[in-house]
Amino acid sequence: MQHSEQTALIARALALIRSGSSERGDPASSPVQRYLDPSRYEREMDGIFREYPLALCPSISLANRGDSLAIDVAGVPLLLVRGEGGQINGFINACRHRGTRLQTAGQLNQRAFVCPYHSWTYGLDGALRGRPHGDDFPQAPAADCALIRVPTAEALGFVWAIPRAVKPDEASQFDIYSYLGRFGADLRNWGYDGWVPFHQREFANAANWKIPFEGNLETYHFQYAHKNSIASLFYDNLLMADHEGPHHRIFLPKRSIETLTEQPQSAWQVGPHSNIIYFFFPATFILHEGDHANVFTVLPEGVGNSRVLGVTLIPEMPKTEKSINYWRKNVASFWGALDEDFALGVSSQSTMASGANTELHFGATEWCSAKFHADVEARIGRSFD
Ligand code: FES
Ligand SMILES: [Fe+2]
Fold first, then answer.
1. What are phi and psi of 20, to 5 degrees?
2. Measuring CA to CA, how many Å separate 6 from each of 10, 151, 285, 287?
3. What is the DSSP track for 304-332?
4. Which ligand sits closest to the CA of 250?
5. Which domain does 289 fall in, by range?
């Protein structure tokens, strides 16, 4: 981020702190059917998850040619691999013979994909390289039996993919930086392309995929939900946000930011005095914490369930016990607070069908959560009201 933009954000925050206020937007309501209706869920899969990319794993997890990952994303089994030329190739993880998954887990340094059923064998580029008794398939020439590609990209230290087959005439590698826009440029300038994962976790979340983002695009809850964890670091109900299309950048000043008033603007840095949320639609959340980042992607797994992939990115792997402990403390602090958020989201989901509410409400400082829903609505056709 340019220094001029950092000073502008800090000045904006200090003005809000002086007046004890927050930026505010339009309040909105959210019908509970958004979290319960299976047909609406299918429209979300078609209109959103088949159209927009998700960060799925750290680039370094697929460091070498032939390193692969098998992962189900929004109902589509994917197989991602580092190809011969160093690029990421993405495929639907389904054999072209009779559909068996080629593998159920990732592997390192593999030279080919061999189907466990009848041994059809594919190169890292997806081409069918061999099959027993190939002459018995005159109706399915080998050239027509390559694995089906999915759109993939690499950026900000992550492999990204869209879980669907590439369309006719669509390139299998897409321009992720144009999708991530100026917020992606922010992160690239912080050096994310070279950052590495210090910690990863994955867990089931018994809530609709949208619920974790509602909770993480507002600060109204900090003083209550996080009273025993991070609340004291931040201001109550202060939210400052910028948007580019459906992406959000939310600036969260820490109380230490007020010490900057004693320093010249030329010395101002957002790093130690704020966290910055970068939310890339539809489901990738990056919390920039100055010298590292905590990232999670939410994968929908049915209308009331999702799976969370979490990664802590740091500039380089630690070499001393002291720095390992420093990063461990950061990871524990992040997941301590996030576990509080996820648990409250699961609690909300559990009452959706109870009849207590026909709709939920976002106040004026929760307007980013409301905007997120509006961006979802705009992509699935009619609003479910
Ligand atoms: S299903 Fe894969 S080789 Fe038969
Ligand atoms: Fe929270």
1. 65, 30
2. 6, 34, 21, 16
3. T-EEEEEEEEESS---SHHHHHHHHHHHH
4. 2
5. 3-50+183-379
Ligand 1: residues whose CB is within 6 Å?
A: 95, 97-98, 100, 115, 117-120
Task: Count structural domains, the chain.
Answer: 2
Could you identify the atom of ligand 1 that is nearest to the CA of residue 120?
A: 3
Ligand nearest to the CA of 119: 1
In a domain, 279, yes or no: yes
Mean pLDDT, the chain, rounded, equals 96
The tens digit of pLDDT for each residue in 148-189 reads 999 999 999 999 999 999 999 999 999 999 999 999 999 999
Confidence of residue 385 (pLDDT cuts 50, 70, 90): very low
Which residues sit with Cβ closer than 5 angstroms to ligand 2, an ion? 341
Q: Pick from 91, 92, 95, 145 the residue to mutate for probing ligand 1's pocket: most ligand atoms within 8 Å of its CB.
A: 95
Report the predicted TM-score, pTM, of the whole model to 2 decimal places: 0.96
Per-residue model confidence as pLDDT tens digits over 129-142: 999 999 999 999 99
